[in-house]
Design a protein that fits this description.
11 helices, mitochondrion, ETF_asu_C, 9-stranded mixed β-sheet, 5-stranded parallel β-sheet, alpha/beta, about 325 residues, electron transport, binds flavin-adenine dinucleotide, Rossmann fold, elongated, flavoprotein, 2 domains, transport
Length: about 325
């Protein structure tokens, strides 16, 4: 009933300009038990678009994730799809589910976080719907006008999307996370049934890196190291500092490429995008591709022995010093 109404309104431009009725589908990213923080940020973006919000939770035993979402204030409906087909959350199996859900409900917007999960999934969905996906939005001006960065974050572009269905990935650091357990009482319903097992791929296994440290993209403080560290062994200086600050550890691509640290620590255009309260860049020059991943941090501290290093142009506090002397001193004093 609601879907028909929304469709009718969208088909009548005069009417829809008087009475805009949006309905958004958010694809939840989760591990069956709990939600990824980027999904909470995506929900805030959905709220900003306006209208009804439906969340799709697909997994194997994803009841806990669905139940957490149903208690978030502002969500109207949680659709759950449980099947072995969704092991590994592969885009090949999730895409037909999303298309089937879209067919049934006719959403005006389909959103996911701009994480590896959302980036693999939504372009596929958009292609199947024959619409243009809009990646990594950082703001919403109106239900059809969105802001995103281009040229590695060097320019900001505002675009109006003319497609009937807007398919968007959302930058997690640009929207506050929607609170769960905030007095909501959304209905939990079954997503459209179907055989979603993919003929294209079969999930075999995944190995997730385990760490007691805060997760890089959601940590309140991040200490990152660059080529200036000179070896993986020397990163222990940063781990000691991070321990004092309860911080996550990140790295530049040069440090990752040199094998000092694993690539899931990379911050930047081709790594993770972070915006913590405090970002400490140690032995990092500040190339634009690195800045693209961290320049929205609230307070940036840079330690570099070269006073001309570009990182000092974005730093709130800069220390021109040899990191091998400055970092242990700083750790000692904390
Ligand atoms: C398409 C593309 C995508 C990219 N994506 C990314 C990305 O996602 N993330 C990223 O980081 N880079 C990315 N890069 C690479 C980027 O251009 C830079 O090469 C990289 O960020 C440099 O890393 P760095 O600052 O650690 O190394 P360098 O530029 O070599 O800087 C090392 C710094 O350490 C300082 N230093 C050295 N010794 C000391 C010391 N003892 N004490 C204090 N300071 C010291 C030096 O003064 C220097 O400023 C990308 C590049 C391309 C082309």
């Amino acid at each position: 009933m609601f879907a028909t109404c929304a469709k009718t309104l969208r088909n009548h431009s005069k009417l829809s300009s008087l009475c805009r009725y949006e309905s958004t589908l958010v694809i939840a990213e989760h591990n069956n038990e709990s939600l990824a923080a980027i999904t909470q940020a995506t929900l805030t973006a959905a709220k900003k678009i306006g209208g009804d919000i439906t969340v799709l939770v697909a997994g194997t035993k994803c009841g806990p994730a669905a139940s957490a979402l149903s208690k978030a204030n502002g969500i109207n409906r949680v659709l759950v799809a449980e099947s072995d087909a969704f092991k590994g959350f592969t885009p090949e199996s999730l895409t037909p589910l999303i298309l089937q859900t879209q067919k049934q409900f006719n959403f005006s917007h389909i959103l996911a976080g701009a994480s590896a999960f959302g980036k693999a999934l939504l372009p596929r969905v958009a292609a199947k719907l024959d619409v243009s996906p809009v990646s990594d939005i950082i703001n919403i001006k109106s239900p059809d006008t969105f802001v995103r960065t281009i040229y590695a974050g060097n320019a900001v572009q505002t675009i109006k999307v003319k497609d009937n269905i807007k398919v968007l990935t959302v930058r997690g650091t640009s929207f506050e996370p929607m609170a769960l357990e905030s007095g909501g009482n959304a209905a939990i319903e079954q997503a459209p049934a179907g055989d979603y097992k993919s003929d294209l791929i079969e999930f075999v296994k995944q190995e997730l890196s385990k760490s007691d440290r805060p997760e890089l993209t959601s940590a309140k403080a991040v200490v990152s190291g660059g080529r200036g560290l000179k070896s993986g062994e020397n990163f222990k200086l940063l781990y000691a500092l991070a321990d004092k600050l309860n911080a996550a550890v990140g790295a530049s691509r040069a440090a990752v490429d040199a094998g000092y640290v694993p690539n899931d620590l990379q911050v930047g255009q081709t790594g993770k995008i972070v915006a913590p309260e405090l970002y400490i860049a140690v032995g990092i020059s500040g190339a634009i591709q690195h800045l693209a991943g961290m320049k929205d941090s609230k307070t940036i501290v840079a330690i570099n022995k070269d006073p001309e290093a570009p990182i000092f142009q974005v730093a709130d506090h800069g220390l021109v010093a040899d990191l091998f002397k400055a970092v242990p001193e700083l750790t000692e004093k904390l």
